Amino acid sequence: MEIANRHVLVTGASRGIGKAFAKMCAEDKAHLHLVLRKTDPEAVKSLEVAGAKSVTVWEADLSTRQGVEDLLQRLKDTPIDILFNNAGTLTGGLLEEQPLDDIYRMFQVNLNALVHLTHGLLPGMLSRKRGKIINNSSVSAYMHFPCASTYAASKAAVAAFTDCIRMELKDTGVTTLLLITPGIKTRMFDEIETLYSKNFQIPNDSISPSKYAEMIREAILHDLDVMEPSGLTGVGLKVAKFIKPLFEIEVARRFKRS
User: How confident is the model at residue 204 (pLDDT cuts 50, 70, 90)?
Assistant: First the structure.
């Protein structure tokens, strides 16, 4: 699918992958729709300078069902071509030590809001016989580390959801792209150290958000269904999927309960 002249909605667009992806789409002359907690005039200006055909900010709180519903009501007359469900929050640590409020909020942002937005914008895409839904999952969907229990569950659900609707949407003109995202050097990546390091020695491989955005661009242009990591992370992902006992031996070596 082409990006130029398309209406692209990006959640979690204020930083990290979302911000880098928005800049890349601006350079490709897209109409950008940024979902932010609050308006950011500097971000809008920088994207216009980068080449965006237009930039619209939609203030929304994805951490509540009502916040997502309000956003969809305001978007009802906007022909979104590409939906990038990128917004996410992180939880981590031994399960019994994770605050329940944080877990509920994480599931709402990482999974419920993603499903809700897709549910709301998909009918318009189907009526136009054109659209792409990009869902940001994670290697954690398949590489099940200690201390990642709740976060990994949300990302595994995203992967399953995307795989199911991919089959539902065959021959409709609407396609999906599932991102099995590796470590990206963002603020969230830095938070992993804080939440996990007490009990688990985390892998430290990472790439920049701008490099990852370019990889997503290529996946969109080539209409890929899934984008998996390469390098050492890609090897680890394959081991986790296909040689699970070997993966768990390495994981056990890195984990300590106390």
Answer: confident
pLDDT in tens, 222-249: 999 999 999 999 999 999 999 999 999 9
Helix (H, G, I), strand (E, B) or coil at 96: helix
**What's the chain's average pLDDT?**
96
Which residues fall within 8 angstroms of residue 234, CB to CB, at 6 or more apart? 182, 228
Q: Residue 186: inside a domain, yes or no?
A: yes
Q: What is the CATH number of the domain that holds 216?
A: 3.40.50.720
Provide the domain count of the chain: 1
Indicate if 155 belongs to the active site. yes
Catalytic entry in 23, 155, 196, 212: 155
The whole domain housing 207 covers 7-254
Which position among 19, 132, 142, 151 bears the catalytic label?
151
Q: Is 198 a catalytic residue?
A: no
Please report whether residue 1 resides in a domain.
no
